[in-house]
Amino acid sequence: MFVAKNWKDYEVIDCSRGEKLERWGKYILCRPDPQVIWQSEKKNPLWKKLNGHYHRSKAGGGDWEFFSLPKQWQISYPLGENGEDRLNFHLKPFAFKHTGIFPEQAVNWEWFYRLIKKEKERREKSGDKTPIKVLNLFAYTGGATLAAAKAGAELTHVDASKGMVSWAKENAEGSGLAASPIRYLVDDCMKFVEREIRRGNLYDGIIMDPPSYGRGPKGEIWKIEDSIYPFLKLSEKILKKDALFFLLNSYTTGLQAGVMQYMLEELIGKGRNGKVSSDEIGLPVAENGLVLPCGCAARWEKAES
Fold first, then answer.
1. What are phi and psi of 275, to 5 degrees?
2. What distance in Å separates the CA atoms of residue 244 and residue 229, rounded to the nearest whole number?
3. Which of the 8 DSSP states describes residue 239?
4. What is the C-alpha to C-alpha distance for residues 285 and 14, in angstroms, rounded to an integer?
5. Are 77 and 136 in contact (CB under 8 A)?
6. Cα 138 vs. chain centroid, distance in angstroms?
7. What distance in Å separates the CA atoms of residue 133 and residue 131, rounded to the nearest whole number?
8. How many angstroms separate the CA atoms of 239 and 45, rounded?
9. Residue 30 to residues 17, 24, 63, 135, 273, Cα–Cα distance (Å)
10. Residues with Cβ < 8 Å from 179, sequence gap 6 or more?
11. Cα distances (Å, whole numbers) of residue 223 to 5, 209, 279
12. Mapping DSSP to helix (H, G, I), strand (E, B) and coil, where does residue 190 land?
């Protein structure tokens, strides 16, 4: 499993009976998690000392219950081997249990951060001033964008939500990346890729973190089981033949790691010198030493020369 184990400001303290107990900085939240079907005893006293609790409704959705929680606060992630490239995130509880960041994604940030940084150093030593161009699709509040930018890449950040793109800009500013070469776009990801194909633009790396279901700015429907294969096929056309990496992430329980690996091998790996790996993504649970599954990821990366 790909495990995000380098957090300092975040941890899963415990999980049981459909809920996970988390520490976000100094605040304790309880949120539902469909993967937590076991019913172990909730022994940790922090279950009764919550700052916020998201209650899921039987009819769908749910509501936050707040006890002592600010409208917004900040946590950091120590990116890099020695934590030298710190990422700062503004958090706030909003619709459908979210806080503005998916902490399990840190294990992916570390992966492509290393690839980009190594390639950046190689190009600088050889006198190659060509920028490393990375495209982040379904980019949300920008965790992956910030990680790639810290490594030295030029970013194109695309999300259909204007609010999420604005939030990503705030996170970039808080992480010292306000002046970095990041292009932010509020757009339907598929239509953007189609235009990039027509324009002939190519990327060294593509990060793709699609929702299970969603709508574009003009009501375009995205359903991952129906849309992901043709979208990967389109996206391959804007990935350089000597590209560095391609990342596909999914929270959909029905889209297994092996399925994602097969798609990347067929659509991304053919004609490129590299390898595909895939696995579940997880977060360590402090109370019992287990790892909580949080989705799957498939990674293609260029073979070392």
1. -140, 155
2. 21
3. B
4. 6
5. no
6. 9
7. 6
8. 50
9. 12, 11, 12, 33, 44
10. none
11. 31, 13, 22
12. helix
Tokens of 233: 């096929």
DSSP E strands, the chain = 2-3, 10-16, 19-24, 27-32, 52-56, 62-66, 73-79, 85-91, 133-137, 154-159, 182-186, 205-208, 213-215, 221-223, 245-250, 274-284, 291-302
Contact 144, 117 (CB under 8 A): no
CA quadruple 234, 235, 240, 246: dihedral sign: negative
Task: Give how far Cα 110 sits from Cα of 87, 146, 155, 206, 215, Å.
Answer: 12, 11, 16, 15, 30
Per-residue pLDDT of the chain in tens (305 residues, 90 and over written 9): 999 999 999 999 999 999 999 999 999 999 999 899 999 999 999 999 999 999 988 777 889 999 999 999 999 999 988 888 999 999 999 878 999 999 999 999 999 999 999 999 999 999 999 999 999 999 999 999 999 999 999 999 999 999 999 999 999 999 999 999 999 999 999 999 999 999 999 999 999 999 887 776 667 677 788 889 999 999 999 999 999 999 999 986 668 999 999 999 999 999 999 999 999 999 999 999 999 999 999 999 999 87
- In the chain, % helix, strand, coil (3-state, to 5) comes to 30, 35, 35
